[in-house]
Amino acid sequence: MAPPWLIIAFDDTGDYVDVTFRSGELWIQFFGSLIFDGRRAVFNGVHVQGPGANQIGIRRLMQLRDFVKDLIDVDELKLAG
Amino acid sequence: MSTNSSLRDSFGLPAPIPTVGTTRSFSERRITHRLVRTGPFASRVSVARRLREEGLTLKEAHIAITELAERDYTICELPDDVDLQQLSDDLSRLDVGLRRPLTQPEPATYLTEVRTRHNLTQRQFADHLGLDLRTLQNWEQGRNRPDPAILTLVRIFDRNPGLVADAIFEPL
User: Fold this and answer.
1) CA-CA distances (angstroms) from residue A24 to A69, B2, B12?
2) Which of A75, B65, B74, B150 is the most exposed place for a label (fewest CB within 10 A)?
3) Of A33, A48, A71, which has the smallest distance from its Cβ to B11's Cβ?
4) Rounded Cα gap, residues A29 and A15, in angstroms
5) Per residue in A10-66, pLDDT tens?
6) Is the overall model pTM greater than 0.80, yes or no?
7) CA B93, CA A69: separation in Å to the nearest integer?
8) Could you give the 3-state DSSP secondary structure of residue B110?
9) DSSP strand E in B2-161: where?
10) Residue A47 is nearest to which of B12, B20, B44, comparing CB atoms?
11) Scanning every residue of chain B, which has its alpha carbon at the shortest distance from the alpha carbon of A10?
12) Interface of A with B in 50-69 (CB under 8 A)
């Protein structure tokens, strides 16, 4: 069972958010502008930094997506740019 | 689309979360610097955070790393009390070079120095730069001071006279 994703660092001003998630030894950072449109959220101009290419894997990324959707209570989460 | 007023609330952060950025106060005076990409730039979020530590807003830091990613350089304003050497060393490890503005030379001396280096009379120098002769004489003799943009033009001329000529003269 994979350890759950947690937020370990967070910074926000206005629409901009810089957030770091961690799950066990894995970590990933997202930095961009988060806009809400009803129950949809779009993360624009996103810069992503992580442990390296293909280190996290699609399954864990989908877990992270679901974790964030629950956290911010939206039905759809889109990454753009 | 609507903007959420508090992303922190949206993220429902339940427990104390380490906040990235800084609580340090900075000088209000800011100086323009140039950042240039020097490598793969894989740690761009780290660059943004390092700039945050020096007083840039999240939006400013976002613009900086986006421009660095898209066109290899950006111009950004840093507080004048930043430890530039430390920042330069840190950014260098993240594939970003820090360039500060050149120290402006004393205009009269500099203009004369460049003109004589290129073996030009005042008339010729004025013509090469697209300037009025009297204006140039007033600058060289210290009666007036040129705008800093003129010194930039002269610096470009000094390095590449043809570039300035191409910008001033066009083919018929």
Assistant:
1) 20, 35, 21
2) A75
3) A71
4) 16
5) 888 888 999 999 999 999 999 999 999 999 999 999 999 998 888 899 999 999 999
6) no
7) 35
8) helix
9) 30-37, 73-79, 96-99
10) B44
11) B19
12) none
